[in-house]
Amino acid sequence: MKNENVIEVENLTKAFGAFKAVNAISFEVKKGEIFGFLGANGAGKTTAIKMLIGISHPTSGKAKVVDFDVYTQPEAIKRNIGYMSQRFALYDDLTVQENINFFGGIYGLSRKAIRQKSKDSLVELGMHEISSKLVGSLPLGWKQKLSFSVALLHEPKIVFLDEPTGGVDPITRRQFWEMIYKAADQGTTIFVTTHYMDEAEYCDRVSIMVEGKIEALDTPKNLKQQFKVASMNEVFLKLARNIE
Amino acid sequence: MKRFIGFIRKEFYHIFRDRRSLFILFGMPIAQILLFGFAITNEINNVNIAILDHSKDTSTLEIINKISNSKYFSIKQIISREAEIESVFQKGKIKAVLNFEKDFGRNLIKKKSAQIQIITDATDPNTANSITNYINAILQNYLQEKNKSIQLDYQIIPQTRMVYNQELKSVFLFVPGVMTIILMLVSAMMTSISITREKELGTMEILLVSPLKPFQVIIGKVVPYIFLSIINAAVIVLLSIFIFKMPVEGSLILLGAESVLFIITSLALGILISTISDTQQSAMMISLMGLMLPVILLSGFIFPISSMPAPLQVISNIIPAKWFIIIIKGIMLKGVGLAFVWKETLILIGMTVFFIAVSVKKYKIRLD
Amino acid sequence: MRTIGYIVQKEFKQIFRNKGMLPIIFILPILQLVILSNAATYEVKNIKFAYIDADRTSTSRSLIEKFNASSYFDVLMDFPSNKIANFAMLAGEVDVVLEIPIHFERNLIKEKSATLGISINAIDGAAAGLESVYINQIIQGYNRDIRVSLMDTSHRSIKPINISSSPSFWYNTSLDYKTFMVPGILVLLVTMITLFLSGMNIVREKEIGTLEQINVTPIKKSQFIMGKLFPFWIIGMGLLTIGLILAKLIFNTPMLGNIPLLYLYTSIYILVILGMGLLISNFTDTQQQAMFIAWFFIVIFILMSGLFTPIESMPQWAQIFTEINPIKYFVEVMRMVLLKGAGLQVILPQLLKTLAYALVMNALAVWSYKKVN
């Protein structure tokens, strides 16, 4: 793994009026890393992600994603990243195959590439048989896995996952993380938010956001040592309590 | 009960927090009633006409003057050949051409009879017909003046009384119609959408598993709209009284009560629509596409129902708006009481009960 | 281009998969065209006519007979008194009451003049005006007959002057309302369907969250918008086609003009409406808001379009206002081309204004569509 940064953020801020949803955060994410972006609900995680993926203008600060500036080159960023939002965002009234074709198509993949890719992912997901079923009729866990595959379709350098496992059963969560590891092994950088603290343990490095600021950033192991606790959950609770 | 009131309060918050919708909800009816009250009329006035005068003598001049002095017509063009008529009509601004025959004045004196041709652009048959009638009336008037010297015997003099609307203001026809269409569409559309919205967002299930009974949920959703619509109705009535000088010959209280009834009928229709549609999109399309044109066309709002083909007259009976328009016209313009509109009132009540009954039935099937 | 193709494909799939919407998009408008076109008539006929005959002579009876013979009037009943007649008018059972006073015949013969009372329900002022015209025509005709039969020959030599006017109704000799209304209602249906569908479409994706997913893709604004609108453009043109075929088959609407010209105009017109729908979509957060705004504009545009009521009769300020009403132009063009056979030369002003409108609307729509907040 080379020590090459794919995300560089410096004093990034988003203010809504007087309220700073994201308050001067700075961090780097290295290539191929699984970067956990933690925080309580309303800590500003989703706002921060939206700035990084180019659908929200920062108020101030600097950010580069895959060498592109978020202010001036949001479209170039979009070509190089995948995104899976906390709201399920595939089309319920299209089939599994049609969703894949559609998103592949608008990312500009060739017909042949789409065919190959969708075959691979469907086999991997075990959804080969149900590829002509409407997505709306699938259980949530399947939808989330499908969403993830769709986000990977155009082989992005970074994938942003915004609470990908919310509301999903433990077994599916497990499978989901296996998919994440596999993608990371192939060199894709993973930027993931979650509030399951056990999932934080799976990350290479985590940052913890509290009220718009990053209060801690290190490997899970170092963080636990630093706060002298046994689990990430306790790290998190300690941090939150300190702020209050 | 407390829970129920809490729920209604939540619905009010939803509506009042959404300023944009609120603005539309109150602003639109006012804007519409003002615009239509002033602008829409099915009378004709200031119709552009052209003159083709082959005679050019004193009598044609007199007639032309008479026509240009009337408020109905303004003479925009003088043409000299029949062939020009086509191109004049094609452009669409001129609606009629008056064609005086050659030697019109001489014929009038010598033969006591002269010919005039009223050529109208009858793509709009109503305007064409009205133009022809009005010009004929002006010609008759002209003749009467000319024939004054000759005492006509055996005259029948009709004394016409225009009842309920002496000045033939078309506002009297349109204001009740606009009021109806606004109340109907706002109420039916808003309820059907707000209920299907909860269905679509999945929040309906949450409400249904709450201790609230299903009908309480529905009533809770509808109550705020009843209030909104009542305010709308009141504003419209005030505007029509103070700005359009509509009389309220009958009881204001009865007018209010009937309006509330009609609002409830519309809301019930909205509920019914929401039971048959799963998405906001289809609820809206049904209430807009399905209601708008039938309400405008079959309610007697613009077009007289009695002139429609018999099957359509029958169909018009299922349009709640038709009955409400009869009721408002009766109360406001004719000054009748419940004794005259009880039948229409009962029909509206019956429709409301029917809509609710069908909704309840559909709803039950869904839950099973 | 290929990207647009994917979006178009997706939209069509979604439209045709929605079994609930299909009938609303296609069947409902057609049904309305076929049925409602019959309703839109200003013709005044079947006038509910009643009379009070206090005279009860052969003269009064023959006058009533005249009304009976007219196709405009349904002679309902003979009321014994004014009070009862007023009551019936209040109840809406009659529209016109003719009151023949006592001694009508005697006055006419002895005093050579007699009066008649006529009451007309004038709530619909325009209809009342027409009714009054028809009544006067009948009475005057009757008056002439009476004169001829009562006057002695010596009197007849003094002949009053007369102007005979002959009406000539161009483009619609039989004054058929359906000829006038079918093209207009077709305009409405095409407009309503395309506006509502496009107005709701993008805001719907906003509401369910798929729009955000689209916004993180590298797709260009213009590609996305074109891909979104194209299916509705097709649906609009399809509706026009079905509508024209039905107009020909069922109503035998005259189609004097150049049909490709009509299609050319419509193809531009629909862009105006789609741009408008998109603009509404961009400025709203929920489908409810979007529909409300769309509804507001469409009601104003419909009633101010000259479709049901003549624009020339509106006050000056309102006429100026109609200049920004796209439906007005479409109604005009439709009627001009179909009924009058107008060519490109004649509809050029409408065509150019619509084109300008389309450019402005779509520029605004693309500009206000934000991929980034």
UniProtKB/TrEMBL annotation, chain A:
Domain ABC transporter: 7-236
Xref: Gene3D superfamilies: P-loop containing nucleotide triphosphate hydrolases
Molecular function (Gene Ontology), one example: ATP hydrolysis activity
Keyword ATP-binding appears in the UniProt entry: yes
Alphabetically ordered keywords of this record: ATP-binding, Nucleotide-binding
InterPro entries found in the cross-reference section: AAA+_ATPase, ABC_transporter-like_ATP-bd, P-loop_NTPase
Protein's recorded name: ABC transporter domain-containing protein
Automatic annotation (TrEMBL), chain C:
Gene Ontology cellular component terms for the protein in this record: plasma membrane
PROSITE patterns given in the database record: ABC_TM2
Domain ABC transmembrane type-2 per the UniProt entry, residue ranges: 147-372
Keywords: Cell membrane, Membrane, Transmembrane, Transmembrane helix, Transport
Signal peptide annotation: none
Origin: domain of life: Bacteria
Subcellular location, principal: membrane
Membrane topology of the entry: Multi-pass membrane protein
Cell compartment(s), UniProt: Cell membrane
Regions that span the bilayer: 21-40, 180-203, 229-250, 262-280, 292-311, 346-367
Any one GO molecular-function label of the UniProt entry: ABC-type transporter activity
Family (UniProt): Belongs to the ABC-2 integral membrane protein family.
Protein name as catalogued: ABC transporter permease
